[in-house]
Design goal:
74% of the residues lie in helices and 0% in strands. It is built from nine helices and no strands. It is globular, with a radius of gyration of 18 Å.
Length: 216
């Protein structure tokens, strides 16, 4: 979340400029991000606890990995026409559609970023715009999730935990910064096909270990 905010700091700063701007900027940009975030927040608030209680097990994770892998391979082979080029071409209908696709990530094993990217490609966003919007849309979703989990666990935290969280945050930030930079360069010019095959292989591994009764 913070790594994306740093990499796209100029874009985020433009959200709060007072003058009226067109495209994915100013209040228009905030409105689009909010529209993308709303379905995930509503679905998480409604079904989040049910998902944690019923779906977090090796079988459902393997299923999510496998179906996600197949979806990637299928979508990457289909010639979806490009209707939008660049972030500034995104309309509210596109933002809402990507937000609905993000909700698929509530199922364990489904990647939020992959779901958003595939959704963007299917509705006609060019690959670069779909990838960038997927990462930008992660910021409000992950921020809201972090605040929600922190509020639930606040009474259990001790002062010494702050140091642990601080060290963990810094390590996660720098590793995420490197990973996001690499993924942005990689995915803007290449497909997700390799990820699709990886997810299928991982699904088979998880399923086989679960079937043999081994601890994952």
């Amino acid at each position: 979340m913070s790594a994306v905010a740093i990499l796209y700091r100029e874009r985020f700063f433009r959200f709060f400029r007072p003058e009226r701007l067109e495209g994915f900027t100013g209040w228009q940009g905030l409105w689009l991000l909010g529209l993308t975030t709303l379905p995930m927040l509503a679905a998480g608030a409604t079904f989040g606890e049910w998902v944690k209680f019923h779906l977090f097990n090796p079988a459902t994770v393997a299923l999510g990995l496998g179906i996600g892998g197949i979806a990637i391979l299928v979508v990457e082979r289909l010639p979806f026409p490009i209707r939008r080029r660049g972030l500034d071409s995104i309309k509210w209908q596109d933002a809402l559609a990507v937000g609905l696709f993000q909700c698929l990530a509530l199922w364990p094993g489904v990647s939020r970023s992959a779901a958003a990217i595939l959704g963007g490609l299917m509705i006609g966003l060019e690959r670069k715009a779909a990838v960038e919007y997927s990462f930008l849309a992660a910021v409000p979703v992950m921020f809201a999730a972090a605040i929600f989990e922190l509020a639930k666990s606040w009474s259990l935290l001790q002062p010494v935990d702050l140091l642990i969280f601080g060290v963990g945050f810094m390590m996660a930030f720098f590793s995420a910064l490197a990973a996001v930079r690499f993924l942005l360069r990689f995915l803007q010019s290449r497909t997700l096909t390799l990820l699709g095959w990886y997810r299928l292989a991982l699904a088979l591994l998880v399923w086989s270990l679960w079937g043999r009764g081994e601890t994952l």
